[in-house]
Write a structure and sequence with these properties.
- The chain has about 80 residues and is mainly α.
């Protein structure tokens, strides 16, 4: 998967997660979708995307990482 593809799929999955925050079943489905994107993402964005995934999944390993979202945005802009 290219960085551009990962960014596109990541953005869709994150928006779906945000939109489904009041529906636990749907939210869980979109968590899985985001995890699938993270698993296929290139190394240039994988760690940052994974940290965002951990926040959405409320993992005990999650750490608030506002810099991760910024780095993803920069990498995605560069990949266009």
């Amino acid at each position: 998967m290219t960085t551009a593809q990962a960014c596109s799929e990541y953005n869709v999955a994150v928006q779906l997660l945000i939109d489904s925050s009041n529906d636990p079943d749907l939210h869980h489905k979109y968590e899985d979708q985001l995890k699938g994107v993270v698993d296929k993402a290139p190394d240039s964005v994988k760690a940052d995307m994974n940290s965002i995934y951990l926040l959405f999944s409320k993992s005990p390993d999650a750490k608030d990482n506002p810099e991760a979202a910024k780095r993803i945005q920069v990498a995605c802009q560069a990949a266009k």
